């Protein structure tokens, strides 16, 4: 499944990286502790988090997560968005909780 | 092929720049994705440690025959108890650092997990040098 299909199915808003929406997704990781995510998220994962500071861009980029999915209407600063655009990191946003998003993601990818 | 990076100790917004830059270098050299990923994760953790604990420092990263070698050096407070610091979940990070999503006590354990060899040379009050090796 592509990020674009995920975004459409879960009604997600693009915060950054819309130009890279053809990226394929595989699996999901949920976490807010960056080192934890760094060591465990896999390439292609949808990373669901409520952490929105600048360092999520490096973590997403280095783990090669397919996208960052910010839950519960978390909005990152302008400089986070700028950096994400520079590094081709897709950030999506939703009003739903991490749990609700994960359940929906499971439903559409199972 | 040697890359040198200065690591700022105050600006969290650029933490990870060295790792991101070196990752691009490795990719361009055609190093396998699995190796690139392992190096990137270990290097990022060491870079964050240099910022958070070392107060900044420097890094030399190079691709040698058969391995990638990365050295981080700082003039920070040093590590009092390396054995304790190696335990998952143990952290001396400040609340401010924790609010940024760091300080989970996973830095050194992640480095150990993703490298083939790591060496820590540290002296309290003098600084820390950590050497990471990932075999090609």
Give a short summary of the structure.
The complex is a heterodimer of chains A (110) and B (136). With 110 residues, chain A is of the alpha/beta class. Helix content of chain A is 40%, strand content 16%.
Description:
- The complex is a heterodimer of chains A (110) and B (136).
- With 110 residues, chain A is an alpha/beta fold.
- Chain A has a single domain (3-109), classed as HprK N-terminal domain-like (Udp-n-acetylmuramoylalanyl-d-glutamate--2,6- Diaminopimelate Ligase, Chain: A, domain 1).
- Chain A has helices at 3-9, 34-40, 55-63, 78-86, 98-109; strands spanning 13-16, 28-30, 46-49, 67-70, 91-93.
- Chain A has a 5-stranded mixed sheet with strand order 1-5-4-3-2.
- In chain A, helix 2 (34-40) runs parallel beside helix 3.
- Chain A is globular, with a radius of gyration of 12 Å.
- Chain B is an alpha+beta fold.
- The model of chain B has no long low-confidence stretch (mean pLDDT 93).
- Chain B has helices at residues 17-28, 33-52, 82-85, 95-99, 107-114, and strands at residues 2-7, 57-64, 67-74, 117-123, 127-135.
- Chain B has a single domain, classed as Histidine kinase-like ATPase, C-terminal domain (Heat Shock Protein 90), CATH 3.30.565.10.
- Chain B is built from 5 helices and 5 strands, in the order βααββαααββ.
- Chain B is globular, with a radius of gyration of 14 Å.
- Chain A binds chain B through residues 32-36, 38-39, 43, 51, 53-59, 61-64, 79, 83, 87, and chain B through 12-13, 15-17, 19-20, 23, 33, 37, 40-41, 44-45, 48, 100-102, 104-107, 109-110, 113-114.
Offer a few descriptive terms.
heterodimer; A: alpha/beta; Udp-n-acetylmuramoylalanyl-d-glutamate--2,6- Diaminopimelate Ligase, Chain: A, domain 1; five-stranded mixed beta sheet; 40% helix; B: 136 residues; alpha+beta; Heat Shock Protein 90; five-stranded antiparallel beta sheet; 5 helices
């Amino acid at each position: 499944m592509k990020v674009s299909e995920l975004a459409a199915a879960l009604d997600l808003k693009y915060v950054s990286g819309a130009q890279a929406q053809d990226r394929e997704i595989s699996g999901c990781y949920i976490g807010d502790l960056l080192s934890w995510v760094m060591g465990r998220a896999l390439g292609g994962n949808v990373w669901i988090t409520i952490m929105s500071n600048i360092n999520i861009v490096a973590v997403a980029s280095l783990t090669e997560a397919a996208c960052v999915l910010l839950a519960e209407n978390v909005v990152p600063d302008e400089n986070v968005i700028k950096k994400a655009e520079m590094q081709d990191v897709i950030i999506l946003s939703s009003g739903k909780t991490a749990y609700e998003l994960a359940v929906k993601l499971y439903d559409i990818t199972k | 092929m040697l890359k040198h990076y200065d690591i700022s100790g105050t600006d969290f917004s650029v933490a990870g720049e060295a790792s991101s830059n070196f990752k691009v270098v490795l990719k361009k050299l055609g190093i396998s994705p699995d190796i690139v990923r392992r190096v990137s994760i270990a290097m990022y953790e060491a870079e964050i440690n240099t910022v958070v604990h070392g107060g900044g420092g420097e890094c030399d990263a190079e691709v040698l025959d058969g391995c990638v070698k990365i050295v981080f050096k700082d003039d920070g407070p040093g590590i009092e108890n390396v054995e304790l610091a190696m335990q998952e979940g143990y952290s001396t990070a400040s609340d401010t650092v924790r609010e940024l999503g760091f300080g989970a006590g996973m830095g050194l354990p992640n480095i150990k997990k993703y490298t083939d060899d790591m060496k820590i040379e540290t002296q309290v009050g003098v600084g820390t040098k950590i050497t990471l090796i990932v075999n090609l």
